Amino acid sequence: MSLTTASRFARRELRGGLKGFRIFLACLALGVAAIAGVGSVRSAIQSGLEAQGSVLLGGDASVEFTYRFADPDERAYLESISTEISEITDFRSMVVRDPDGEAERALTQVKSVDAAYPLTGDVILEPSMPLADALAGTEKLPGAVMAPLLADRLGLSPGDSFRLGTQDFVLSAILINEPDGSASGFSLGPRTLVTTEALREASLLQPGTLFETEYRLLLPPGSDLDALENATEDAFPSSGLRWRDARNGAPGVAEFVDRLGAFLILVGLSGLAVGGIGVSAAVRAYLARKTSVIATLRTLGATRATIFQTYFLQIGALSILGIALGLVLGAMVPILFGPVISASLPVPAIFTIHPAPLAEAALYGLLTALVFTLWPLARTEEVRPAMLFRDALDGAKALPAWRYVIATLVLLALLVAVASFFSGSPFLTLWTAGGLIGALIVLVFAAIGIRWLAKRSGKSMRGRPAWRWALASIGGPRDAAAPVVLSLGLGLSVLAAVGQIDGNLRSAIDRDLPEVAPAYFFVDIQPDQMPQYTEMLENDPAVARIDTAPMLRGVLSEINGRPARDVAGDHWVVTGDRGLTYAAQPDENTRVVAGEWWDADHDGPPEVSFAIEEAEEMGLSLGDTLTVNILGRDITATITSFRDVDFSTAGMGFVMTLTPNALQGAPHTFISTVYAPQEDEARILRELATAFPNITAISVRDAIDRVSVLLEGIGAAVRWGAAATLLTGFLVLIGAAAAGEGARTYEAAVLKTLGASRSRILQSFALRSALLGAAAGFVALIAGILGSWAVMTFIMDSSFEVVWTSALGIVVGGVLATLIAGLIFAWRPLAARPAQVLRARE
């Protein structure tokens, strides 16, 4: 019965329109829209990847080998399950141009293809021509095509010649579109495309060199991909092959988009939390205005349950409206800006209405609305009918009944659980939730402290009326500090944390790494070249240090006889082929932290030394056995020691180091790092490349620049998300300022009656806003610095320094935001006539 009555009361209340709920709706809609928009873009990219999976992969399926081509049996099997097959190789090399006797070099990612390439999609060249004609070249030289960036860097135009290894090529055209380009993921150099046959004389595909071979397959219609994958792996269990199919044509891109999208949604949840504060404040202000209505209902016999249900239904209906507005905005904005977004993406995207991210955003919005409205709604039950005519909500107890406290905590836990499930990263979600809750607790205590301090400080401002009025208002019974400090403080905390993390990442890349990193990585050094290579560098006075090691790549397939992924999950060590080496004795840079190294003349079963940090993450112990597939051969070794490996120095670091007797007989090359001043880098590269045209040089500085560009894009996306959070906080400020307009009007009327001038009253309003903004900015800065320090220290395992330019901007931004919001609603109180205001108050 009470629910029916409450429904009727709620419908009648809603007839009054949305006055007082505009900020409520804006906060909820903006938070939901941010999450829905990010999710819609992520789903659009995922749909594009799924729809174009065959084109991105270059076929219906792909089988990949490391270091080698398929043997005759493997090739025959692949041909038997497919209708068409194409063989390609992929590796890094140096492009050399020597127009006037002065060689110019650049790193490139070479793809060599056969006549069947591409099986799917179209290669677009400039000038337009068939790929086969472009790669045929001239009578004297084989042809090649390359990416515009690489051609521009070397000053190459169609018709010019260049060299790969020991083979000269003629540039036939510029590569405008490579249909399967994103399947390879992140690369350090732009693409060059040649035929595999033309590389036979280039000395680049020798045994042991770092190259990968892929066999792209077109399958019969209706093929069972799962069955084919299992059958292929069962047919060649020790071959080291890796199967991919069109269901995941660009796994690196898909994983990156998924993780970045999940992180941005967590940033969006921060914005929704800020909006939740505005929602809570709007509900509290609305119920305060409904004191007389509640009093009348209680007088006429309405129960506490009826009153709670009345306003719960009313606020619920408005919440659904706000969520709906956010969903419409979040669904339509990506569609409207779809062409612009698609033009900036390296992969296809299908922009349409995607129900899944909209449902996820709606669930977030609903849970947030419940968490932040249940508390103020529940407090109405704690007010006695006799008090309802005397600012009941201001006189209610701070805490509602325990059942509402417990319900709020359960809803909060459910919100965190949902976010953990959808993000796919419970660890990061819990960190984010903990940071938000911690920031809110700090801000609540800060608001209480600011109010207490303002109340104590006001008495010492004799002779400074504007300051005294401002402090009295902040420390007054209406608690003006709380909504400002909470809303703006949380928004600025998120922005401060993002700014500090972004600044520290830039600092680590721009300042720290170049001081400790080598100038070059040299790979594919043949064993018989090592004596001459080492002698050249040791006799060069500019070279400060040389590190060398034998280099192989293998797939960690089993741990203690079980599939590696069943033991270690999706840890990066088991998700692809890994670099590994062998050594008779540890060098001076190796620090064994557990177990013992093998004897120098070890001739027993293979043993392995493993990186300690990765071992702990994977749950490995001394005595565990690892099976690594190298060149199609399974090698099982026992872990006898753990080493401390620091990958942050950009030097050589191997997760696995094996005994020499396990790997020494396998075809392999050497890898080397060279430390030298920047001014000598070009000369060293020129001399080594002339002496050893087959080796590949990877400039650490160039690699860092490419990573910096990638991080800049990520940072920009995160900053936009944080800006949306701050915008929500500003809307809450507007709402708080609008809600307090009546109190400021009365205050201005009293002050005018006592002889205060408009300018002095305006000065007090401005001072109050500036003080609250500075306090919110200062507290947010502390919370943001603590949060970013925790992220850099415990999640990114990096050093942390306060970026003071960003910190100053946060405090200044807080002052400006509250000042603008306060002044927007200061003019009507200043213009009001005291007599009318005081008469109406009576």
From TrEMBL:
Instruction: Identify the InterPro entries for this entry.
Output: ABC3_permease_C (IPR003838), MacB_PCD (IPR025857), Membrane_comp_ABC_pdt (IPR038766)
Q: Name one Pfam family in it.
A: FtsX
Keyword check for Iron-sulfur, yes or no.
no
What is the membrane topology here? Answer: Multi-pass membrane protein
- TM segment ranges: 260-287, 308-341, 361-380, 401-422, 428-454, 770-796, 802-827
Q: Pinpoint the MacB-like periplasmic core domain residues.
A: 25-233
Q: Does the keyword Signal apply?
A: no
According to the entry, every stretch annotated as the ABC3 transporter permease C-terminal domain falls at 266-379, 724-829
Cellular localisation: Cell membrane
Its keywords, alphabetically, are: Cell membrane, Membrane, Transmembrane, Transmembrane helix
One GO cellular component term of this record is: plasma membrane
Q: Under what name is this protein listed?
A: Putative ABC transport system permease protein
In its UniProt entry, the species of origin is given as Marivita hallyeonensis
